[in-house]
Amino acid sequence: MRTFGVEEEFLLVDGRDGRPRASASAVLGVAGERSGGRVAAELKLEQVEVETDPCKSLDELAAQIRAARCRMAASAHAMGVEIAALGTSPLPVDASLTPSRRYERMAERFGLTIHEQLTCGCHVHVAVDSDEEGVAVLDRIRPWLAPLLAMSANSPFWQGRDSKYASFRSQVWARQPSAGPTEPFGSARAYQETVRAMIDSDVLLDPGMIYFDARLSDRYPTVEVRVSDVCLHADDAVLVAAVCRALVETAVREWRVGRPVWQIRTELLRLAMWRAGRSGLETELIDPRRFRPAPAVAVLDALLAHVRPALEDAGEQAVVGDLRAELVRRGTGSRIQRAAYARAGRLEDVVADVVRRTVA
Q1: What does the DSSP assignment read for 195-208?
Q2: Cβ contact 100:106 at 8 Å
Q3: What is the DSSP letter of 55?
Q4: Considering just the CA atoms, what is the radius of gyration of the chain in Å?
Q5: DSSP label at 233?
Q6: CA-CA distance, 248 to 77, in Å (whole number)?
Q7: pTM (predicted TM-score)
């Protein structure tokens, strides 16, 4: 089986009033002394990142995700704050840049885009054998990335207001000049030439700013799928990761038998991603098979049907089916956040509910 792993970003919030706190340095200092996966600073001092080790099974990945969340939560609590699996902060915040020459250069170049960039995502890494195989995957998974965003949608509030989006993080992130879907590349050489041209343009600082919806990792021999919000529930992160691995395996199998790349205009992919960020799983998504509106659950099931052989071969079909059923029954993080606000009428209570669920 292909190994896979997950990076999750979390907000650091005050346990009393729910507001983000610039405590990353202290929290990471404590977390770094504990055993487990990698922990790292992010763009803002109000957030932290945890990363699993490469895993072979869903059980192993689920255990690592939960352990990493609990370890980071304990480290944060020791420093007087809590971690919250929030794609954006429901409460107003003027976030603090993490001290770093690279981040300072980004802030100088991109201005308000970086100043307001306090968002938390979930990135899934899936192993590939070569860059050529990886690019074959990137070219073939393009139509199916928007449903992944819908499954993970967990950022309905922005600066104290309901954004009317299920994932407003996706809107904020789209301001980045390299973010979004890509045209098919056709070869590893074409991919690398595109990246080099983007760096040589002197818009991006370095390859780390290649923010495609899915890319070749510049650190690991993996395809990195980057569209998802950080999931409120650990089970949803496991589901997203399982589907990502199955998408990669399905794409490789198509490539090996010479099945051609599905030629879909990038403009249409942008519309599908916008629809997913706006609706989540609540109403309709764009069905990538014919690019017409369809019930969100039907599109989710079409995605699972597309990757079913890979899931069956991995022995994961039943588990993924159960996780899918629970997600549809319970709803995404955006639905749960709005329900918490409807009950209490206070965004502080929304954050408190998220803090409890993050490590539940």
Answers
A1: HHHHHHTTSSSSGG
A2: no
A3: B
A4: 19
A5: S
A6: 37
A7: 0.96
